Amino acid sequence: MTYCLAMTLDDGLVFASDSRTNAGADQVAMYSKTHTFELEKERVFVLLTAGNLATSQAVLARIKRDIEDEVEESLYSVRGLSDAAAYLGRINREEREKHEDTLTKAGFSVDASFILGGQIEQQPPEIYLIYPQGNFITTSSHTRFLQIGESKYGKPILDRIIAGETSLGDAARCALVSIDSTMRSNVTVGPPIEVIVYEKDTLAFEHYLCLDADDEYLIDLKRTWDDNIRRAFQDLPRFDWEGTRGQKRRGTQMAALRKATQKMTKKG
Amino acid sequence: MTYCLAMTLDDGLVFASDSRTNAGADQVAMYSKTHTFELEKERVFVLLTAGNLATSQAVLARIKRDIEDEVEESLYSVRGLSDAAAYLGRINREEREKHEDTLTKAGFSVDASFILGGQIEQQPPEIYLIYPQGNFITTSSHTRFLQIGESKYGKPILDRIIAGETSLGDAARCALVSIDSTMRSNVTVGPPIEVIVYEKDTLAFEHYLCLDADDEYLIDLKRTWDDNIRRAFQDLPRFDWEGTRGQKRRGTQMAALRKATQKMTKKG
């Protein structure tokens, strides 16, 4: 499995990915899922990949080949980010069709999903999620992040923290916590964690991190977060039976359960 | 969907469940998924249900009928908790078989899962997860909680907090946070939230809460947790580009990205 996410914030974009791929429990490997394309001072793209590794590698090779061959439609020729997403959707569909029948017959999935983000000249920075079928969505002022792969474990912390005005640093930290939480709960997501922070209108990559499991910053972040979470628990409001407040509500609650229980136990 | 969880702690057991059921987006209803059975001072059971509502209601009706009819094998006659789990597995299998063919043909799932926990006389308290096929598992000293339904969103906080020595109050609060996080991220899980805290060797239910969305304690807990999470973020270690420390590592990281990027862009 895989977990990648990207965010659109007022100050720019944040991308993060894990690096574990697995086909069954005995075929676990490490692959970077973060790929960058840059025409300095003109256009920058970050591509995150999830799903079938052969399909995503084939799509990646197509993107590079199309750039090298300077074909009519490539990441360096498209007019806007949405055109780049449409281009990626097309080649994703074309690459999957080459192997779909044989893989489906064999009981495998040929699906690959992508997050493509970046900025072209003075157009606003954008991110797009490209589905295995080639269609795609982008973010909105209410929905600031997109996820691919094993996305559920790490979503609640994003839902709580990420908003348009969130600073790029906080957003990147939140992405790390989101991926760390996923790694703790699911063994198919693993380090190193890659993070790219893109500052709006710079048209260049300046903040990139690749954090191994033993990276001092990641260890520091994880320990601090763990400590803070435990502290966050300590001053949560107590239950009635732990203290003195709200005895009344507890009383009524207990009455409700007694009633339900008695009915079930009348012949017990 | 549904989200239920239960925990075995040194001091006793904690059970929690949401109350939303849905068959498609336009068939959303509210059902309690927490059911209790009590032979005072002899045996207590809590049953949490997830999956096909017809199957779980049929199983529940069977349990009550078997108690009322005082049949040979019922929750009030079984020798231990594992026998209760085996009994539940059997009637779950029997009830699903009545409708499996027709529902599967119609494209529906007949699956229902259960968590059954409690204590019989002086035996240790236990919880069991009963699968739709009737087999079952329990907890261990390393794995303190079991979940059914929409379990991924709420798992990371349990992985961080729950251990054998966790107090019943902290465990119940953690269960509420786990369900609240799930409700925020997934609309098929909803209030009221029911919580039962069972103190080891009491053989009676004393702490029960049913918290509606507008319950003052739940609102208080959610607001405090939200504030604490935000505060927990504020003192996480900063990135290099936000401060002054670790310039060296950032330098090497950036070099790595430049190299990768240049290769891709040489003909761009």
UniProtKB/TrEMBL annotation, chains A, B:
The UniProt record lists the keyword Amino-acid biosynthesis: no
Protein name: Putative proteasome-type protease
tRNA processing found in the keyword field: no
Gene Ontology cellular-component annotations: proteasome core complex
Species whose genome carries this gene: Ectothiorhodospira magna
GO MF annotation terms: peptidase activity
Alphabetic keyword roster: Hydrolase, Protease, Proteasome
GO terms of biological process kind: proteolysis involved in protein catabolic process
